[in-house]
Predict the 3D structure of the following.
Amino acid sequence: MLFLRRWIANPGKVGAVLPSSAALGRLVARNVARRPDQWVVELGAGTGTVTRALLGSGIPADRLVVVEIDPDLCAFLRRELPGARVVQGDATALRALLPEGAAGNVGTMVSGIPMLTLPPDLQRRMIDAWLDVMPPDGRLLQYTYSLLSPLPAGRLGLEGRRCGIVMRNLPPAWVWSYRRAG
Ligand SMILES: C[S@@+](CC[C@H](N)C(=O)[O-])C[C@H]1O[C@@H](n2cnc3c(N)ncnc32)[C@H](O)[C@@H]1O
């Protein structure tokens, strides 16, 4: 109900009527890559379905940064996942939200932000802010309801591939993995 209420309050930012399923969270978690010293950053955590899967897959809570722009959703995440490092803020200004040592060392960025509907200049600013804190071989995972790539990979200097589809999600969703081209 909280998710639905936040969607009614801000449909453009929330971008979905229902939260993701646990099955989608697990597919995302299986595609995370990080060296032991690296961080994972989740952007647009909502009510935390994907966060739970990331933590459940063994990513240590002190190496996961959970970013959410909506204050009500942040309060919910802090209550429901007391061990998680939840940061309220805008993913466009990501560097300022990260703890010391994380910038430049984010092995995988996980995004639930509805990128498809953003204007191209905002898309560009977001991706630039994310690449800015990732090492050259860093990975970006984005999930989407779209059959096509949720990001214009070539224009953004990225290479993308589909990791898989989750039918047990309403609607079914794809997970895409991107990295810097070349
Ligand atoms: C489609 S929902 C995904 C929620 C959750 N990850 C899930 O899969 O159920 C998108 C989420 O991104 C958040 N969001 C949108 N724009 C954001 C931004 N610029 N920075 C941080 N979070 C943002 C919204 O508040 C919302 O919770």
In short: The two ends are 44 Å apart (CA to CA). Residues 92 and 129 are 6 Å apart (CA to CA). The first strand starts at residue 39 and ends at 43. The mean pLDDT is 95.
